[in-house]
Each structure stands twice: as C-alpha cells, then as structure tokens.
Amino acid sequence: MSSDNPMVRFDNVQKSYDGKTLVVKNLDVDIAKGEFLTMLGPSGSGKTTSLLMLAGFEPATHGEIYLNGKPINNVPPNKRGIGMVFQNYALFPHMTVAENLAFPLKVRKMSPTDVQQKVDRALAMVELPSFGQRRPAQLSGGQQQRVAVARALVFEPELILMDEPLGALDKQLREQMQYEIKHIHENLGVTVVYVTHDQSEALTMSDRIAVFEDGVIQQLSSPSTLYEKPNNSFVAQFIGENNRLNGNITAIDGTVCTVELDSGDKVTADKVVDGGIGTRTTLSIRPERVDLDPEAGSVPVTISGKIEELIYLGDHIRVRMSVAGTDEFIVKVRNSASGQSLETGQLTTVGWNPEDCRALDEIAA
Amino acid sequence: MKAFTVMIKEIIDNLRDRQTVFYALLFGPVLLPLLIGGSIVASLKQLSIDFDVVTTVAVENRSSAPQLMEFLYSNNVDVVDAPDNPEQAVRRGDVDVVLKVMPAFGDNLRAGQPAPLTLFVNEADKESGKQARKIRALLSVYERTLNNLRMQHRGMDPNIFNTLDITQQDVSQDGAGGQLLASLLPFLLIVSMVMGGFYLAIDTTAGERERQSLEPLLTLPLRRRDLVLGKFGATFCFVLLSGLLTAISVFLLFKLFPTDLLGSNMRFDGITITKAFLLASPLLVFISAVLIAVSAFTRSTKEAQTYLGLLMVIPMAPFFALQFITIRNAVYSMPFPMLSQYQLLERVVLGDAIPALFIVLSVVGTLASAGLLLWLAFGLYSKDRILM
Hints:
Shape of chain A: globular
Radius of gyration of chain B: 30 Å
Number of helices of chain A: 8
Number of strands of chain B: 4
Structural class of chain B: mainly alpha
Low-confidence stretches of chain A: none
Largest sheet of chain A: 6 strands, mixed
Oligomer: heterodimer
Radius of gyration of chain A: 24 Å
C-alpha cells in the first residue's frame, strides 16, 4: 500500500519525554493516500505517542514527519488540517449535535448555508440525520462516537486520526462501529491513522497494521499477512491465538528448517528466525491450523498428545492438550460428528503442514 | 475574529450550564446582596427606633401615674390596660411589653425618692426588645425632665451637676457604621464579578482539558492566542453581566435601607452606583484575566476549584482588612487592583471628591495587572504542556 509519494511519512522519528528513554525509536512509516493504517500495540508501546506527534500535540525529539511531502515538525496542530477522533468523544457538552459539527466550519469562516449543508451531510453519513438538536448527554455512547466521527469529517480533511475511538463502547457496539467506520472510510476515501490495542478491531478495519512494541514497529503488514506470517514471536502472540513450542534448529534447507523440540520430537517449519543450526527457536502454530488425530499421511508433521480439557464454544470445540512438553497446546475442532467423540484424557495425535508452522525468535517458556 | 467565534461558542456552551448560570446570574447578583445586604438592612431596621410611629403599650396600674401616661401619649404612645399576668403575656407574645407602675410610685415621687417602675420585656423576641428600647428611651427623657423640675423646685440650677461640657465632632460625617456600609458596595460588586466568571473560566479551561475537548479545538485553524482571547472574552461577558446585575440589585437593595440610618453624605442613588460601576469596570478585565490564567494553569476541574476557591479570599480581603486596619487613600495604594477599587468606591458612596490621579493610577495599575495575567495565559496555552 505504500507509495513513492506517501501522504504521511515518518522518517527516522524518535521521541523521548525525559531526554534519556526513547518511547518511539527510529520510526519509519509511509502511509499512502486513502489508506487505513492501524497502529496496534500494548500500553506504552509508543503507538499513541506516534499519533500525537503526527497530530502535532507532541514534538518529535529526532527525525521528521512529512504530510503530503512537506515537513510538519514545526507546523502547529491548527495548521495541519487534520481531523481527530478521541476515545472519550471530546464533544462540547452543552452544545447540540449540530452545533458541535458546525463549530469547525464556523471557525473556517464558511457561510451559514454551507455550514448547514455540510452538517446535514455529516449527520446523514453517520446515520444520525434527526439528532441535530440533541445534546451529547442525550445520546448513547455509540451515537456520541458517531457524532465525534462526523465532527472530524465535517470539514472534509484529507487525514483523520483516531485515538482508540471505540475503547469506551461495549463489545457489540464496538463491533458495529468498526464496520461503520470502515464503510465511511471506503466511501470517502479519506486517509485514516487509527490507534488501538484491540487486535480484532485492527484486523477488521485496516488496510495495513503496524504492530508496536517498546517504541519499535515489530511488523507492518496487511491483516492477513500479519496473522498468517508473523515476523516474530511478539507479533505471533499479540495477533490471534498461537501455540508455542521451543526447541533447537538442527537442519536448514532453504526457507525450511528442522527443529528438535525440547521434548525430543522433531518437526519441520518455515525458518523465520535469524541464525544457523543450533539456534534456539519458538515454533508458532495457529490452533485452527492443527489437525487433531489426522489420517496417516495426510500431514507431514505429527506428534502424539493427550486431551486435557474440552471447551464447547458452539461452532467449534476448543481442545486443550498436552503436546511436546506443554499442556497449553490448543486445537480448534469444528463442531461436527467427529468432534462429539472427543474425551478428556484421550491419547491421540496432532499434525500440521510445515508452512503453517513458523520458527520464530525464542520466547522463554 | 476567530477569537469571537470561540467566545460565542463558550458563551452558548455555558449559558446552558446550570451551575455557571446560577453563580453568574443568580448567586452573585441576587442571593449575595440579599444575604449580606438584606441581613444588614434587617439588623439596622431592628436597631432603629422611630418615635414618629404611634405604638401601643400595655400598662398595669396606670391610674397611679397619670402624668407619665400623659407624657407617653404626647410622645405617640397609646396606653392600654395590661393583661392579668404581664410576665406570661409577654413571654407568650400576647403583648410586646408591659409597663407596671408599682404601688409605691406616687408616694415615692412625692417624697423625692426614686419612683419604681417595672418593664416586662422578652429579649429573645426582637419586636419586644425593640418596643422596650423605645419605652426606655422615653422614660429616660421623662426622668431627666423630672430631675430638672426637682432641682428647680429646690432653687438649684439643673446644670450644677454638669461639670464638663464635652462635644465630640465626628469628622467622618458618617461614622464607623458608614464605613461598613460604604464598603458593602465594592464588596458585593467585586465578589459577584468573581463568582460570575468563576465556573465559566473553569469549564472553558481546566474543564475542557479534563474532558479532552481541548484537543479538537487545538486541531482547528485557530491560533492559541485566539483561543485564549475567546475564552477570556466569554469570561469577561459573564463577569460584566454579573457585575451589572449586581449594581442594579444593590441599587434596589439600598432603596430599602432606612434613610435615617444612612449618613448624611452617603449615597446609593443611580448616579452614584453608575459612577461606582465605572470606577470598578477595570476589574472586569482584571478578574477575567485572573480566572483564565489560574484555571489555565490547573489540570482538572477539581484543582481549578481549589485554587480559585482560595483566590476568592482576595476580593474579600480588602473588605475585611479595611474594617480593622487603616490604609489611607493614597497614591501608593491606587495601582493595586481591588484595593484601589474598594477605596475609590467607598469615596464615591461617601460623596468625597476623587483626585483624577487616583483614578488614572487605579485604571492603569489594574489593566496592567490584567495584561500581565493574560500574557501568562497565552504562554501557558502556547506550551504543549497544556494537554498533559
């Protein structure tokens, strides 16, 4: 999605609050026009600081941020022309919804007719056309957040920044709003930089996701690549569920390696980790990519295991097993007739294709 | 011009906030004058005795003192018969007071001895106490008249016991009570002005930071200076409105004052109140600037309320200080905001002439202080710290 002429460019950007510790380290990101990029990471990983630097609320300690090719480090927030949506909505509490939306336009000296038209259009866009005269306190959390989105969009900025905008909503509303924001983005073609710590939110909405940890982008990829091909153990465990098995690389054949697990079992996997034979590694396998009791020869890798726990989840059964020395090995089994015959304590085998198993940097057990 | 847009936004926003409206339009201009001024009016009215008003007093055994009854009647006191049990009747409030002429009254009077009278009064009852003070005052006059007659009867000059003829001339014209009343106007005006902008300043600065609605404002094409000026302008409007309403309510309040209690030169007419408001008007700017600067410095509504709550002592300080210590009206006191307005407004109320230099110094000193505070607020808003 990145291009030669990105709309936003972070060029070797660093940030330190105390002059000693870098909370953002050498950030290099290009964001294309019309892209929906999510900065995802745990608390303190540097994602919000990066967003605030882009908004102009925090100065970069080092490096340069570009907007449409122009450096903006010394441009104050009010001259960047960026729309922002915040977690707590940040609406003006005693103004009506229409007044909240009209204010950014009035500040821009638009005529009352234009203001009215744009306000009506923005309200229609967030499906609140008849809510103009209500005050924020008279709206639900989801409606308030829609107004906040509409206020950020009403003056038609090219770039919208969203700082955990759905964090205060309940799960059902959050999921609904994810689709609505995604649709608004698709319809308007506006560039969105979105900050969240919720991986499912990021996967649902984003064109690309930048996974932050310790002030560094661990991986910047599309949601599917991020999920299917994590670059390191942190990304693998942060995005989705993941089985981890530790061992040593004993052989390398191109991009594939053989790993002797600490239990003594030998398996093959995609080699992602740097290093040669003897390197410690953590294998990462998604639970849904593991076959339980596979037919002989159907998958190249098989290991024996024991069913420890069965959790019925409707459409699938979550099976916790003891495999290769860990008793937290999870397998997701589709709820079918075969799934009904599983029993706790049952000895069986698990298997997978080597391309579904990635040898990553080691995480201590 | 963008500052004006911000100002209108803040005014509309806060006109819908009940707390702000209550303190700006009701508490300062109405409740405060009623509470403070009203209680003073009530106390003064209670203490004052109007001898021109005809009152009725119950007297027991009035036939024993016909001349005294005649004296009371000639001084607008109608005498009626006392109830059977005077003590209980006064305690129950059936009558305000009962004057009992003791049986020995006539004999003692004739013998040149003190003639006994008993006045039943309920001091816990304000009306009873007030009635008793009036009767005691009249009886004192009657006693002095009898004393003079007795001495003249014995061929003595009544002035023989007046060895000194002391005259004290109070050059203040209106006395200590006048000073208190005169300082009431600046007190009510200034406190009300502060209350008028108090919650708006907190809401538009610390409150905005707390609910994080400052960030969206900062992303708009507004200079930080416009933002501060807009907030200052909105605060100024509320302070002005509160001050104006208070001036009107003080004018109406002093209409209720017993005129005989006001000093001969003390004025609370429309022209005086207008002059006082104009002299206090630089404070509109100063108070707005103080409120904005202090609340911009704070990070939350609670913190702002704490600091501004402490700040509320400042407008009250000159009022109380001037009751106990003498700070003469002088060139050195005029540049100080609030103190100079207290002094100038007192002079206006007391009808004293005010040197032009005093006015100039007061206006310049107050506006310069306001400018300094606004500069401080600009500085605070220019820093990134404003969001933290």
